[in-house]
Predict the structure of LysR family transcriptional regulator.
Amino acid sequence: MSSEATSLPNLQALALFVAVVDEGSLGAGARRLAIHQPNASRLIARLEAEAGAPLLDRHPRGSRPTPAGLVYAAHARELLEAADHFTDWLRTTRDAEAPELRVGASMTIAEHLVPVWLTDLRRIAPSTRVLLEVENSTHVIEDVRSGRLRLGFIETPHVPRDIHSRVVAQDELVLVIAPHHPWADRSAPVDAAELAATPLVVREGGSGTRDALAVVLGDLPQAPPALELGSNAAVRIAVASGAGPAVLSARAVRAQLESGELLRVPLDGVGADEVGADSVGGQEASRTGHGASVASGGVSAGGVTGGGLQREFTAVWTGPRRLTGAAADLVAIAEGTATGPSA
Protein backbone atom coordinates (compact mmCIF):
# COMPACT_ATOMS: atom_id res chain seq x y z
CA MET A 1 0.00 0.00 0.00
CA SER A 2 1.24 3.54 -0.70
CA SER A 3 1.64 6.30 1.88
CA GLU A 4 -1.37 8.06 0.31
CA ALA A 5 -3.64 5.44 1.91
CA THR A 6 -3.27 7.12 5.31
CA SER A 7 -6.00 9.63 4.39
CA LEU A 8 -9.63 8.90 5.23
CA PRO A 9 -11.38 6.88 2.52
CA ASN A 10 -13.88 8.48 0.18
CA LEU A 11 -17.17 6.71 0.97
CA GLN A 12 -18.67 7.59 -2.40
CA ALA A 13 -15.67 6.05 -4.16
CA LEU A 14 -15.91 2.92 -2.01
CA ALA A 15 -19.63 2.60 -2.76
CA LEU A 16 -18.86 2.99 -6.47
CA PHE A 17 -16.17 0.30 -6.36
CA VAL A 18 -18.53 -2.15 -4.64
CA ALA A 19 -21.23 -1.33 -7.21
CA VAL A 20 -18.78 -2.02 -10.07
CA VAL A 21 -17.88 -5.38 -8.50
CA ASP A 22 -21.57 -6.24 -8.09
CA GLU A 23 -22.69 -5.04 -11.54
CA GLY A 24 -19.68 -6.30 -13.53
CA SER A 25 -18.84 -3.06 -15.31
CA LEU A 26 -17.83 0.50 -14.56
CA GLY A 27 -20.73 1.92 -16.56
CA ALA A 28 -23.36 -0.16 -14.75
CA GLY A 29 -21.89 0.63 -11.35
CA ALA A 30 -21.84 4.34 -12.16
CA ARG A 31 -25.46 4.25 -13.30
CA ARG A 32 -26.50 2.53 -10.06
CA LEU A 33 -25.14 5.45 -8.07
CA ALA A 34 -26.11 8.12 -10.63
CA ILE A 35 -22.47 9.12 -11.20
CA HIS A 36 -21.29 10.31 -14.62
CA GLN A 37 -18.83 7.81 -16.10
CA PRO A 38 -15.89 10.25 -16.44
CA ASN A 39 -16.24 11.07 -12.74
CA ALA A 40 -16.55 7.37 -11.94
CA SER A 41 -13.32 6.62 -13.82
CA ARG A 42 -11.49 9.29 -11.82
CA LEU A 43 -12.80 7.93 -8.50
CA ILE A 44 -11.68 4.37 -9.31
CA ALA A 45 -8.28 5.61 -10.48
CA ARG A 46 -7.86 7.47 -7.20
CA LEU A 47 -8.76 4.35 -5.19
CA GLU A 48 -6.19 2.32 -7.10
CA ALA A 49 -3.57 5.01 -6.52
CA GLU A 50 -4.31 4.98 -2.79
CA ALA A 51 -4.27 1.17 -2.70
CA GLY A 52 -0.99 1.03 -4.63
CA ALA A 53 -2.28 -1.82 -6.74
CA PRO A 54 -4.79 -2.48 -9.54
CA LEU A 55 -8.22 -3.27 -8.16
CA LEU A 56 -10.04 -4.04 -11.43
CA ASP A 57 -9.24 -6.03 -14.53
CA ARG A 58 -10.81 -4.11 -17.41
CA HIS A 59 -11.85 -5.85 -20.60
CA PRO A 60 -14.32 -5.08 -23.43
CA ARG A 61 -17.17 -6.95 -21.74
CA GLY A 62 -16.78 -5.29 -18.36
CA SER A 63 -14.61 -5.15 -15.26
CA ARG A 64 -13.72 -7.82 -12.73
CA PRO A 65 -11.97 -7.39 -9.40
CA THR A 66 -8.35 -8.45 -9.14
CA PRO A 67 -7.35 -10.64 -6.17
CA ALA A 68 -6.41 -7.44 -4.34
CA GLY A 69 -9.70 -5.94 -5.47
CA LEU A 70 -11.68 -8.81 -3.92
CA VAL A 71 -10.04 -8.20 -0.53
CA TYR A 72 -10.50 -4.45 -0.98
CA ALA A 73 -14.21 -4.91 -1.78
CA ALA A 74 -14.77 -7.04 1.34
CA HIS A 75 -13.25 -4.38 3.61
CA ALA A 76 -15.12 -1.64 1.71
CA ARG A 77 -18.43 -3.39 2.40
CA GLU A 78 -17.64 -3.53 6.12
CA LEU A 79 -16.79 0.16 6.18
CA LEU A 80 -19.92 1.14 4.22
CA GLU A 81 -22.09 -0.93 6.54
CA ALA A 82 -20.50 0.76 9.55
CA ALA A 83 -21.13 4.15 7.93
CA ASP A 84 -24.80 3.23 7.48
CA HIS A 85 -25.05 2.24 11.15
CA PHE A 86 -23.43 5.52 12.15
CA THR A 87 -25.84 7.51 9.98
CA ASP A 88 -28.83 5.68 11.49
CA TRP A 89 -27.52 6.31 15.01
CA LEU A 90 -26.96 9.98 14.27
CA ARG A 91 -30.48 10.37 12.85
CA THR A 92 -32.04 8.61 15.83
CA THR A 93 -30.05 10.72 18.30
CA ARG A 94 -30.95 13.92 16.50
CA ASP A 95 -34.65 13.04 16.41
CA ALA A 96 -34.63 12.05 20.09
CA GLU A 97 -33.10 15.38 21.05
CA ALA A 98 -35.40 17.47 18.86
CA PRO A 99 -37.61 19.91 20.77
CA GLU A 100 -40.95 18.34 21.67
CA LEU A 101 -44.18 20.24 22.23
CA ARG A 102 -47.16 18.45 23.77
CA VAL A 103 -50.38 20.21 22.82
CA GLY A 104 -53.99 19.46 23.68
CA ALA A 105 -56.97 20.83 21.78
CA SER A 106 -60.70 20.48 22.14
CA MET A 107 -62.65 18.89 19.32
CA THR A 108 -63.72 21.87 17.18
CA ILE A 109 -60.33 23.56 17.42
CA ALA A 110 -58.48 20.32 16.66
CA GLU A 111 -60.62 19.52 13.64
CA HIS A 112 -60.79 22.93 12.00
CA LEU A 113 -57.87 25.11 13.14
CA VAL A 114 -54.97 23.13 14.57
CA PRO A 115 -53.95 21.44 11.28
CA VAL A 116 -53.40 24.86 9.68
CA TRP A 117 -51.59 26.16 12.77
CA LEU A 118 -49.23 23.18 12.85
CA THR A 119 -48.46 23.55 9.16
CA ASP A 120 -47.39 27.14 9.80
CA LEU A 121 -45.42 26.12 12.90
CA ARG A 122 -43.49 23.58 10.85
CA ARG A 123 -42.29 26.39 8.59
CA ILE A 124 -41.07 28.40 11.59
CA ALA A 125 -39.71 25.55 13.74
CA PRO A 126 -39.17 22.53 11.46
CA SER A 127 -37.22 20.56 14.08
CA THR A 128 -39.99 20.72 16.68
CA ARG A 129 -41.98 17.52 17.17
CA VAL A 130 -45.58 18.29 18.08
CA LEU A 131 -47.61 15.65 19.89
CA LEU A 132 -51.31 16.55 19.67
CA GLU A 133 -54.00 15.15 21.92
CA VAL A 134 -57.66 15.74 21.08
CA GLU A 135 -59.97 15.78 24.09
CA ASN A 136 -62.74 17.94 25.51
CA SER A 137 -61.97 21.27 27.14
CA THR A 138 -62.21 19.97 30.70
CA HIS A 139 -59.63 17.26 30.02
CA VAL A 140 -57.33 19.71 28.24
CA ILE A 141 -57.40 21.97 31.30
CA GLU A 142 -56.68 19.02 33.61
CA ASP A 143 -53.72 17.88 31.52
CA VAL A 144 -52.29 21.40 31.25
CA ARG A 145 -52.62 21.88 35.00
CA SER A 146 -50.88 18.55 35.71
CA GLY A 147 -48.01 19.39 33.37
CA ARG A 148 -48.80 16.57 30.97
CA LEU A 149 -49.45 19.15 28.25
CA ARG A 150 -47.29 22.22 27.65
CA LEU A 151 -50.09 24.08 25.91
CA GLY A 152 -53.83 23.68 25.44
CA PHE A 153 -56.55 25.22 23.28
CA ILE A 154 -60.06 25.18 24.71
CA GLU A 155 -63.59 26.27 23.81
CA THR A 156 -65.17 26.44 27.25
CA PRO A 157 -65.82 29.86 28.79
CA HIS A 158 -64.81 28.42 32.19
CA VAL A 159 -61.07 29.13 32.39
CA PRO A 160 -59.58 28.49 35.86
CA ARG A 161 -57.66 31.27 37.58
CA ASP A 162 -54.65 29.09 38.38
CA ILE A 163 -53.51 28.80 34.76
CA HIS A 164 -52.46 31.43 32.24
CA SER A 165 -54.78 32.07 29.31
CA ARG A 166 -55.06 34.13 26.17
CA VAL A 167 -57.94 34.44 23.72
CA VAL A 168 -56.65 33.45 20.28
CA ALA A 169 -59.72 33.23 18.04
CA GLN A 170 -63.45 33.84 17.77
CA ASP A 171 -66.11 31.29 16.92
CA GLU A 172 -69.84 31.26 16.28
CA LEU A 173 -72.31 28.72 17.62
CA VAL A 174 -75.36 28.07 15.46
CA LEU A 175 -78.62 26.18 15.91
CA VAL A 176 -79.06 23.46 13.26
CA ILE A 177 -81.85 21.04 12.38
CA ALA A 178 -82.66 18.38 9.81
CA PRO A 179 -84.60 19.57 6.73
CA HIS A 180 -87.66 17.57 7.84
CA HIS A 181 -87.70 18.99 11.39
CA PRO A 182 -90.89 20.91 12.34
CA TRP A 183 -88.85 24.09 12.76
CA ALA A 184 -87.89 24.00 9.08
CA ASP A 185 -91.14 25.80 8.16
CA ARG A 186 -91.07 28.46 10.87
CA SER A 187 -90.47 32.11 10.07
CA ALA A 188 -89.60 33.34 13.58
CA PRO A 189 -86.26 32.85 15.35
CA VAL A 190 -86.01 30.55 18.38
CA ASP A 191 -85.73 32.39 21.68
CA ALA A 192 -83.86 31.32 24.81
CA ALA A 193 -86.88 29.88 26.62
CA GLU A 194 -87.90 27.71 23.67
CA LEU A 195 -84.33 26.55 23.12
CA ALA A 196 -83.93 25.61 26.78
CA ALA A 197 -87.23 23.70 26.76
CA THR A 198 -86.28 21.67 23.67
CA PRO A 199 -84.46 18.32 23.98
CA LEU A 200 -81.22 18.92 22.08
CA VAL A 201 -78.53 16.65 20.73
CA VAL A 202 -75.53 17.71 22.79
CA ARG A 203 -71.86 16.94 23.31
CA GLU A 204 -70.66 15.15 26.43
CA GLY A 205 -70.17 16.90 29.75
CA GLY A 206 -66.91 18.84 29.78
CA SER A 207 -67.25 19.86 26.13
CA GLY A 208 -66.61 23.55 25.49
CA THR A 209 -69.56 23.71 23.10
CA ARG A 210 -71.91 22.36 25.76
CA ASP A 211 -70.43 24.67 28.42
CA ALA A 212 -70.93 27.71 26.19
CA LEU A 213 -74.56 26.78 25.56
CA ALA A 214 -75.14 26.35 29.29
CA VAL A 215 -73.73 29.82 29.92
CA VAL A 216 -76.03 31.54 27.42
CA LEU A 217 -79.12 29.70 28.68
CA GLY A 218 -78.26 30.74 32.22
CA ASP A 219 -80.81 29.78 34.86
CA LEU A 220 -83.55 28.75 32.45
CA PRO A 221 -84.91 25.24 33.15
CA GLN A 222 -83.39 22.96 30.51
CA ALA A 223 -84.99 19.87 29.03
CA PRO A 224 -83.03 16.61 29.26
CA PRO A 225 -80.85 16.03 26.18
CA ALA A 226 -82.29 14.05 23.29
CA LEU A 227 -78.86 12.46 22.88
CA GLU A 228 -75.43 13.00 24.43
CA LEU A 229 -72.57 12.22 22.03
CA GLY A 230 -68.79 12.42 22.12
CA SER A 231 -67.92 14.22 18.89
CA ASN A 232 -69.13 16.93 16.53
CA ALA A 233 -69.43 14.39 13.72
CA ALA A 234 -71.70 12.17 15.79
CA VAL A 235 -73.89 15.14 16.70
CA ARG A 236 -74.15 16.20 13.05
CA ILE A 237 -75.20 12.71 11.95
CA ALA A 238 -77.77 12.45 14.73
CA VAL A 239 -79.29 15.82 13.84
CA ALA A 240 -79.47 14.94 10.14
CA SER A 241 -81.17 11.67 11.10
CA GLY A 242 -83.91 13.53 12.96
CA ALA A 243 -82.78 13.04 16.57
CA GLY A 244 -83.34 16.72 17.34
CA PRO A 245 -81.76 20.17 17.01
CA ALA A 246 -78.20 20.93 18.11
CA VAL A 247 -76.04 23.95 18.77
CA LEU A 248 -72.62 23.52 17.15
CA SER A 249 -69.74 25.60 15.88
CA ALA A 250 -70.46 27.13 12.49
CA ARG A 251 -67.10 25.68 11.43
CA ALA A 252 -68.30 22.17 12.25
CA VAL A 253 -71.44 22.37 10.08
CA ARG A 254 -70.35 24.64 7.22
CA ALA A 255 -70.30 21.87 4.61
CA GLN A 256 -73.64 20.42 5.78
CA LEU A 257 -75.32 23.83 5.62
CA GLU A 258 -73.95 24.48 2.15
CA SER A 259 -75.16 21.08 0.90
CA GLY A 260 -78.60 21.41 2.51
CA GLU A 261 -78.07 18.34 4.69
CA LEU A 262 -78.72 20.61 7.69
CA LEU A 263 -80.65 23.85 8.06
CA ARG A 264 -79.84 26.76 10.31
CA VAL A 265 -82.41 28.33 12.60
CA PRO A 266 -81.81 31.92 13.77
CA LEU A 267 -81.67 32.62 17.51
CA ASP A 268 -83.35 35.60 19.12
CA GLY A 269 -82.44 36.98 22.53
CA VAL A 270 -80.18 34.04 23.37
CA GLY A 271 -77.03 35.04 25.21
CA ALA A 272 -77.43 38.79 25.29
CA ASP A 273 -73.97 38.89 26.88
CA GLU A 274 -70.90 37.55 25.15
CA VAL A 275 -69.92 33.92 25.61
CA GLY A 276 -66.41 34.89 26.67
CA ALA A 277 -64.21 33.89 29.57
CA ASP A 278 -66.42 34.17 32.63
CA SER A 279 -65.61 35.18 36.20
CA VAL A 280 -63.52 32.05 36.61
CA GLY A 281 -61.27 33.27 33.76
CA GLY A 282 -57.52 32.90 33.64
CA GLN A 283 -54.82 35.40 34.46
CA GLU A 284 -54.50 36.81 30.96
CA ALA A 285 -58.01 36.21 29.64
CA SER A 286 -59.47 38.93 27.48
CA ARG A 287 -63.08 39.44 26.43
CA THR A 288 -64.30 40.55 23.09
CA GLY A 289 -67.50 42.28 24.05
CA HIS A 290 -69.36 40.51 21.25
CA GLY A 291 -72.92 39.55 22.02
CA ALA A 292 -75.16 37.06 20.41
CA SER A 293 -76.50 38.01 17.04
CA VAL A 294 -80.22 38.68 17.13
CA ALA A 295 -81.46 37.80 13.69
CA SER A 296 -84.82 38.17 12.10
CA GLY A 297 -86.08 35.97 9.32
CA GLY A 298 -86.63 32.28 8.97
CA VAL A 299 -84.71 29.08 8.62
CA SER A 300 -81.90 29.08 6.06
CA ALA A 301 -79.38 26.83 4.36
CA GLY A 302 -76.19 27.55 2.49
CA GLY A 303 -74.65 30.07 4.88
CA VAL A 304 -73.29 30.55 8.35
CA THR A 305 -73.78 34.26 8.89
CA GLY A 306 -75.98 35.96 11.48
CA GLY A 307 -78.27 34.66 14.20
CA GLY A 308 -75.57 32.79 16.12
CA LEU A 309 -73.69 33.06 19.40
CA GLN A 310 -70.17 34.46 19.49
CA ARG A 311 -67.65 32.68 21.70
CA GLU A 312 -63.90 32.63 22.23
CA PHE A 313 -61.18 30.03 21.72
CA THR A 314 -58.52 30.27 24.41
CA ALA A 315 -54.92 29.10 24.77
CA VAL A 316 -54.01 27.89 28.27
CA TRP A 317 -50.70 26.98 29.92
CA THR A 318 -48.90 26.83 33.26
CA GLY A 319 -45.43 27.84 34.37
CA PRO A 320 -43.89 31.19 33.40
CA ARG A 321 -46.43 33.73 32.27
CA ARG A 322 -44.40 34.54 29.17
CA LEU A 323 -44.34 31.68 26.68
CA THR A 324 -41.13 30.95 24.80
CA GLY A 325 -40.00 28.73 21.95
CA ALA A 326 -42.40 26.71 19.85
CA ALA A 327 -45.25 27.20 22.34
CA ALA A 328 -45.02 30.97 21.90
CA ASP A 329 -44.80 30.55 18.12
CA LEU A 330 -47.92 28.38 18.05
CA VAL A 331 -49.96 30.82 20.12
CA ALA A 332 -48.82 33.69 17.89
CA ILE A 333 -49.87 31.70 14.82
CA ALA A 334 -53.26 31.00 16.41
CA GLU A 335 -53.70 34.70 17.04
CA GLY A 336 -52.73 35.47 13.47
CA THR A 337 -49.77 37.57 14.56
CA ALA A 338 -46.88 35.24 13.67
CA THR A 339 -43.89 36.82 11.97
CA GLY A 340 -41.54 35.25 9.48
CA PRO A 341 -42.40 32.66 6.84
CA SER A 342 -45.85 31.87 8.21
CA ALA A 343 -47.07 35.45 8.48
Remarks:
- The domain at 3-96 is CATH 1.10.10.10 (Arc Repressor Mutant, subunit A).
- The longest strand covers residues 164-177.
- DSSP finds twelve helices and 13 strands in the chain.
- Residues 232 and 252 are 7 Å apart (CA to CA).
